[in-house]
What does this fold into?
Amino acid sequence: MKYILILILLIFSNFYGLTTFPIMLLLILMLIYCKQCILSPPKYAKKIFYFTLFVAISSIPAYLFRGQPILASLRASTGYFLIFIFFLFLKLKINKQTTEKTIIIFGTLTSTIYIIQFILLQKGIVFLQVQENAIELATDARFRIACSASIFLAYFCALNKYLIYKNKKYLIILFITFLPIIIQAFRAQIAALIVFTIIMIYVFWKKGLFKINRIVFLLIPSIYLLLQIPIVKEKLEYMMDKQTNSTQTFADDDYIRWKALNFFSSEYQKSPVEYIAGSGIPHQGTFKKEMENIITEGLFYQDIGLIGAAFIIGPISILFLIYLFLKPLSFIKSNNIQNLYICIYFLFMLSISFTNAEILRDGNFLIHAIAFYISYLCYKEKKYYNQTYAKNKTTSI
It folds into this structure.
């Protein structure tokens, strides 16, 4: 079953952007297939509808003030609507074990393809969508891959599994998923990854499930071996140099992200309505050309992450999205830390998505949907445990 699920993810991500399947049509067919689950959704998942509803509403200002047809805006919003994959997993009644295996395999596959493209890029061979000057930049190229969130989810899932079972195969997965992260050399991502890795290890150590000497034994040689890899060493030196010598930091008033924030908060809107509903997603016609002109000035709404996205799909959509990401924290207090990685994943994605649009990248809502589905299964487990405990307690009395 897990390989069927991986194929589904590949199809809905257009095989990492290599094909051109009509995803909107596939999504409509999937919604028809999952009609019963959608018409009677679990209470835990109802906020998914509110999020997608307000994303859809943003197409109205795009039509009224920017002349873009509503259908074009909805087509441009397909990537957000992929969160409905949650209902496909619900319809198929996929168990947690199968879902976790799917996550690890798909995340490892995504990482492997990214690494292969990076290696081939040095030889002038390109098969993924990369920047125009990627071949010229060689090892300095910082391209992205669809479903990039699967790398992070697989990383935290594998870390969680290793801390529980101490199986060395999970260390291999950690290494494979960590390499694309270091190759991309985004400071915020790497810093957040280190912080949340330490938090996970600390939680397991605090509960006596992982010894401090094992941590030291693993970390020191692992760091040493990583530093022996030329590209890792080069990327770390690049990030250190950028942090210490570059003017592109938040301390600089001319930092491009400050400029983007000032522009999108004060000059971008054509009507006060857009502050509430968003402008819609540029997809065609004059609206698309207008955004292209803005981009040529180096102003990307993606550079200011969720704040930038609020100007496009509306702040209400973003608030519901944040709610969905924080909802799994409701069961983090339980003693079952097998589910810790889900909470960590959502917190990690939020933490890195105010200086970039990682949450919103192509295909990532497929991954968020799967993570949310696991959080729903965890919620059901906790609810069942509480009900059983209460029943047994009543019976014993």
